[in-house]
Amino acid sequence: MRKVYQEISQIAGNVITVQATGVGNQELASVEAPGFSSLAQVIRIEGDNVTMQVFSGTRGVPTDAEVRFIGHEAQTPFSDDLLGRVFTGGGVPRDRGPALDEDLIPIVGPPVNPARRVIPRTMIRTGIPMIDVFNSLVESQKLPIFSVAGEPYNELLARIALNAEVDLIVLGGMGLKYDDYLFFRETLEEAGALSRAILYVHTAADPVVECLLVPDTCLAVAEKFALGGKRVLVLLTDMTNFADALKEVAVTMEQIPSTRGYPGDLYSQLAARYEKAVDFEGAGSVTVLAVTTMPGDDVTHPIPDNTGYITEGQFYLRNGRIEPFGSLSRLKQQVNARTRDDHRTIMNTMIQLYAGFRESQEKQSMGFRMSAWDDKLLKYGELFETRMMDLAVNIPLEEALDLGWWILAECFAPQETGIPTALVERFWPAEAGARGVETLAEAAPAE
After folding, report:
1. What pairs with residue 200 in β-bridges?
2. Buried b (16+ CB within 10 A) or exposed e, 322-341
3. What is the pTM for the complete model shown?
4. Among 22, 241, 250, 409, which is 20 to 30 Å from 366 by CA?
């Protein structure tokens, strides 16, 4: 029988302190009082002073509330019954389905030993040309999506959840507006994809500490499924809300702040989550794709700045598109050479010509005289933006590569592209006229 403590020595924000012995860091406790019941988690131990974050807040907690330590860290149920379900950050059903309380697993654990990891080698197709063609997502990769408030990053995650060629999707929402939560749920339900997904959603109205539990719960469940042979894609939104929750707890605990008030261990906290991405030898894999909104579109802000040192590239989402300049998948070379012979050539050529388009655009805006080559680049850039960069375009990799050839053929002669003759002879469209226009029209996003 665990000892019950009935004297809370301090209450500050959502944090309480009691004097107790034999307690472990991150251990759970129950806090009970007339009209009040909540779990709490140990966040600091100094001698006999044990500080805990109360999940549901401390409003209504008297100083004589009963505090009983449970004897283990936070746990979450694990079974195939999770599929198609929606839970809170604390693992409580949000979909009015039955509670699951068997086969509990800890949500906190170390990342896999790097020596036991498999070198990433398998592409995850998403149906989005700006990812599949230009910055391929690789199994067991960890990538952030850098964006700003107002960009359609949640719509992008939903598209990826629907199209990604994986066995299982684990979606973690942190600080979501209720409309965003409903959007994810309804989108997956309407497309029939909810049956292969598990949602852990913390809304802006939920307790802050539950926000901190979301990525750990998602990654613990994903890792367990991966050990069973599943290819799991973890989608997290928004890691800035997670970091802000860390900041709020640190301020309550009166920790000495670091840059812009964030805790000094921000890098370690982010790395502990991102490093859960792994490909298990003889089993499945965990791939992590996480949204990070940049306050003021400032990439030097502590959250994106620390994230960039941890992850293997980034996607920049600007003006409703994945920006080709700045976006990078550092592992794409592991898979591009094994997709199709023209993949890397199309990728490099189209980006190079798009850079030329940007220069011609600048010349045009400044009133310089335009050459025939500038006119070709302007035509090319418009086709590239509408037919490939638009996030509504949804086509397989091979069709996207073919579309790239047709766009080039619509605007340039083969010798103007700098593509090797051997590839031109194999892939250049024989007739770039009516058939090219028809192909482009089929790939155009719906109005």
Report:
1. 87, 172
2. bebeebbbebbebbbeebee
3. 0.90
4. 409
- The CATH class of 76-336 is alpha beta
Strand partners, 231: 285
For 187-345, list the strands marked E by DSSP: 197-203, 231-237, 278-279, 285-293, 313-318, 321-322, 328-329
What lies within 8 Å, CB to CB, of 34 at 6+ separation is none
167-184 per-position pLDDT tens digit: 999 999 999 999 999 999
Average pLDDT, stretch 313-335? 93
- Are the beta carbons of 409 and 432 closer than 8 angstroms? yes
**Partners of 42 in the β-ladder:** 52
Q: If you search the block for the tokens 């049956």, which residue do you land on? A: 195
Q: Are 411 and 376 in contact (CB under 8 A)?
A: yes
| CATH class name, domain 4-73 | mainly beta
The strands making up 15-19's β-sheet, listed across from edge to edge, are 4-5, 66-73, 27-33, 36-46, 49-54, 15-19, 8-12
The type of residue at 52 is M
Residue 233: which of 195, 277, 271, 270 has the closest Cα? 277
Q: Identify the CA nearest to 289 among candidates 235, 223, 219.
A: 235
What value does the CA radius of gyration of the chain take, rounded to a whole number of Å?
25
Domain regions of the chain by residue span: 4-73, 76-336, 343-443
pLDDT of residue 375: 95
Question: Which helix (H) or strand (E) covers residue 405, if one does?
Answer: helix 397-411
DSSP string, 242-280: HHHHHHHHHHHTTPPP-GGG--TTHHHHHHHHHTT-EEB
Distance of alpha carbon 300 from alpha carbon 226, whole angstroms: 34
Q: How confident is the model at residue 32 (pLDDT cuts 50, 70, 90)?
A: very high
Contacts of 404 (CB under 8 A, 6+ apart): 133, 346, 350, 388
- Exposed / middle / buried, residue 385 (Cβ in 10 Å: 0-12, 13-18, 19+): middle
Spatial distance between the Cα atoms of 294 and 274, rounded to a whole number of angstroms: 18
Q: In 3D, which of 97, 238, 79, 230 has the Cα closest to residue 171?
A: 238
